[in-house]
Amino acid sequence: MTNNSTDIKLLSTTIATAIESGRIGRPMFVRWMERVDADPELYVAAALEVVSGWFGAEPVASHRPGGSDLQATMFARWPDGQSAVLIAAPAGRASAPDLDVAVIGARGAAYHHA
Amino acid sequence: MTGSKYRVLLISGDRTHQEGYAAGFHADPRAEIVAVADEADVPDLRHTLNKEMADRYGVPYINDLDEGLALPGVDLISVCPEIERRGRVAVRCAARGLPLFLDKPLAGTSGDIADIRAAVNNAGVPAQMYSLTSTPWARAARDVMRSGELGDLIAVHAEVLFAKGRAGTVPPGLIRSERETPGQYTFTEAKRELFDLGIYPIVLCLLLADSPVKRVTAHTANYFFAEHASVDIEDLGALTLEFESGVVGSAIGGRIGFYSHPKAGPHSVTVVGTEGSRTFSPWDPHVEVFADEPRPELPTPHPADPMSMWRSTQVESGVPRKVGWLALEDESRLVADEVTAFLDCLDTGRTPDVGVDLAAAATEVVLAAYRSAARGEPVELG
Question: Is this structure's pTM higher than 0.95?
């Protein structure tokens, strides 16, 4: 999936490389904030797949607080204790689609914003 | 005001957040610190630290709270005792009938929160809990929301993560179990970060949503620091909020390590409306500087403050400033802006953004978040 600003597959691979290098330590928490111009649920589902790849497992629990279907918010936990907040919000007229990701590791962090 | 300046009584001194608040009052030409006071039966170290602040500002230290509160000519009180005694102290301060500048969070138990709220409301005094609502980025978020540019609010996300301390020391494989009732809050080694830092994004969410919270779903963890793990408290907390209005919120608070961000840490608020969304942060926009110069090195931790919680110990141990990113926003006024906003309210009679009712609601959300994290399920409020 492409966000119009970021090729998600390339992003996934690049951050995975940073993780595998050990520079940031074990990835513990991800905040994924994506501004989109289509169904936000699709983007959060795609984000969950990417983050699960970084954490190396499927989540053991997730919570969607609901609200307007113009946005999607998900909170998820993984078996080794990691967690993530994933949000897709309408870009609307105010902003172009973009992606802001923070991957916080045990001893460092990787950020992407485009 | 009894004279030409607001005469400020400080309750508790060094190695509390009072260090920042006192500096803010001292720097504002409308205010004058007149004394530091505290309860008589606090530990000797607390008396010593209180006296150090009093000496620094050249004012008396009164080691008896009743005597301090009886001091004539005081115009406002900055209240900053440790969480465990905050309820009884704040209630006594409220009874003095003066405006109150309150440390965050409001208190550590629902009983103390209710007592403080009732005491302040009964006294009818202006009160403001410290938060980040007066920062330029938080003000910009409110302005955009109020402008209608984004349509009706449907979601809000806020995060305040502090890049402090030496991360990567947590025991490998540790998966922490939360307790429904936090118990002790005050440790030398560390602080509960959902409580201490999570309160900031929670306040921002509540202020912007302007609706009671219906449900909280939270997770707390030991991800980074041995210091937090050693006293079984979290270094990061994350939660979702469901407001009665239908607005959805999410908040993240924690301490992630000095080297984990080019500045003080990820701080931002995102306002999501029916017509679009925008994010506001002190670091956006910024200038990035690269040079042949040594990177800032975290010094040996201060034995009395290994997590760099206090201004005085940060200075003593030589925690350096990070200069790779230059924020366009003035990042040095984080605390001073809140003090200025409080004095502005007193000058104009305007109600503070984070009065005791919002402060109580936000702190109750934190306590509900601990219950949710302990149970591993959403918790209803109200």
Answer: yes
